[in-house]
């Protein structure tokens, strides 16, 4: 009886493992197609941008200029929603005197295709090319910014393309590491189809880096941010904020805004 029960449990466990393996896209990516609002809703002028990745995937983004801009920020967003759900951040960066180019990965918003790690990497490089080669933005005045999943994307971009600085906010060390946090009962390292290994990519930085994280982050543990900071070469800076994973930048208020402002002044101004 005990043997049969054990076999049944193992069969069920194996079925769950197989299901998780094949359903990882749904567990990782939460794209929305509908554009809820544009920067105009925040009183900002903007340009609709259409461009292509190397594999021909059609991509969409917004270029939001700032008056007397001190630099340009390339925004790699997190894994849920689309660019229209980042208006609060766009407004903060605009008020800091930064041009903002935010784009949707394939499968998000008005961008074509379906999301995947290799494809999203291509999308980020296409965004960099649009800014530097298409718009002739000075790479030495370009800040690569990534939040959450977008931090792993930004880390890979900043480690291989010219830029002036990089900011990683609420970023995990790797996708398998995150799997171990939320699914400790699964053989995550054996079944993970993606890596998003920011911890490996930050070691390639040759520009100043700012790591932003909150001890109250309920999704990405604070220790991930500290680990990324430890793996970054100098010069590097750490900004501790408060609040949860999705609202920390808002709840932290002046601590967040002034911290980013100090970083920009120290490395670019």
Number of domains: 1
Q: Give the number of DSSP strands.
A: 10
Helical segment count: 11
CATH class: Alpha Beta
Task: Give the N-to-C terminal Cα separation.
Answer: 73 Å
Oligomer: single chain
Query: Sheet bearing the most strands, described?
Result: 8 strands, mixed
User: Strand fraction band?
Assistant: 15-25%
Q: Tell me the CATH superfamily.
A: Alpha/Beta hydrolase fold, catalytic domain
Rg estimate, integer Å = 19 Å
CATH topology: Rossmann fold
Stretches with pLDDT under 50, minimum 5 residues: none
Task: Using brief descriptors, characterize the structure shown.
269 residues, eight-stranded mixed beta sheet, alpha/beta
Give your account of this protein's structure.
By secondary structure, the protein is α/β, with parallel strands linked by helices. The protein has a single domain, classed as Alpha/Beta hydrolase fold, catalytic domain (Rossmann fold). Helices cover 40% and strands 19% of the residues. It contains eleven helices and ten strands. Strands 2-3-6-4-7-8-9-10 form an eight-stranded mixed sheet, with helices on both faces. Strands 1-5 form a two-stranded parallel ribbon. Strand 9 (209-213), helix 9 and strand 10 (236-240) form a beta-alpha-beta unit. The relative contact order is 0.12.
